[in-house]
Amino acid sequence: MCYVVxxxxxxxxxxxxxxxxxxxxxxxxxxERRYRMARRCIRIMMHNGKIETESTGQELLPSEGGYVxxxxxxxxxxxxxxxxxxxxxxxxxxxxxxxxxPIAGSFIDLVxxxxxxxxxxxxxxxxxxxxxxxxxxxxxxxxFPEGGYENNRNELQEFxxxxxxxxxxxxxxxxxxxxxDSYKPFGMNSLRRVKTQVHFLKPxxxxxYCEMTTPQIAELVKGKIEAEIHxxxxxxxxx
Length: 239
Fold this sequence. Notes:
By secondary structure, the protein is an alpha/beta fold. The protein contains ten helices and seven strands. Strands 1-7-6-2-5-3-4 form a seven-stranded mixed sheet, sandwiched between helices. It is globular and about 50 Å long. The two termini are 29 Å apart.
């Protein structure tokens, strides 16, 4: 990770300043333009870090309206890999503590993401309600229901049921996202090329989960992601 940051430093500094200028200008810069800028930033970091991300399932994404993508969590590259693979504007829910780091803070401001304060239940609920309202209005969010990612690699941890309230309150489609080897780009001390995978799975519509509890939804989504990872890794190992 240090190598990627150092090599990309002039570019990163340029975009940090530009992101701040955009933030000051506010509505003059639409979400599409912000997202294009974010993806340009990601592509350059991928190039400098010798990172390739294979992706599938874009044709399954809802063509209209908001939705929430729920992905397994492996490391700092997860959001970048998903956004690099997601053709239309989307944004991220990030832990408030991590979001105030210099680069992460500017990036989340650029894509107008949300910071989730896990230490304050009242603030958490306020953030969830805001996300739900934005999804209902047509925005697309990335959520990592596992919370943390230490040593997860390609193994899934428990999915937190509360994280699914963003989708249930908005009555929005849930898009499971399976990521593979996403821990490698920023988690391995190597200059070798790395390849990650992002797979968008078939959306789960509100009508399909409306009678389920959030723990049941969490298990359903986790099961679909787990099954996809198993199939993909089995196919890779057979080659």
